[in-house]
Amino acid sequence: MLYFENNVEKMECIKCHYQQTQTNKEVKKASHQSENVIGVFKPE
């Protein structure tokens, strides 16, 4: 089954209920441009 929820394309298998989502290209560009790593956590 293929449907849209909150402008996000979603797919779900009717038999096993596996779900997969895919956003449009504008959303991917906007969400990854301003991301920066400020530190790395290394547990001892």
Structural commentary:
By secondary structure, the protein is of the alpha+beta class. The protein has a domain at 2-27. It has one helix at residues 25-33, and strands at residues 2-5, 8-12, 19-22. The chain has a 3-stranded antiparallel sheet with strand order 1-2-3, with no helix packed on it. Strand 2 (8-12) and strand 3 form a beta hairpin. It is elongated and about 45 Å long. The chain starts with a strand and ends in an 11-residue tail after the last helix. The model has no long low-confidence stretch (mean pLDDT 76).
SSE topology:
Layout (H helix, E strand, L loop, with lengths): L1 E4 L2 E5 L6 E4 L2 H9 L11
Antiparallel strand pairs: 1-2, 2-3
What are the salient characteristics of this protein?
44 residues, alpha+beta, 3-stranded antiparallel β-sheet, 3 strands, 30% strand, elongated
Specify the structural class. Answer: alpha+beta
Shape: elongated
In percent terms, what proportion of residues is strand? 25-35%
Number of helices: 1
What level of helicity do the residues show? 10-25%
**Order of strands across the biggest sheet?**
1-2-3
Q: Helix and strand string, N-terminal first?
A: EEEH
The rounded Rg comes to: 16 Å
Detail the poorly predicted runs.
none
- End-to-end separation in angstroms reads 45 Å
Q: How many β-strands, per DSSP? A: 3
Instruction: Return the average pLDDT rounded to an integer.
Output: 76
Largest sheet, strands/sense/barrel: 3 strands, antiparallel
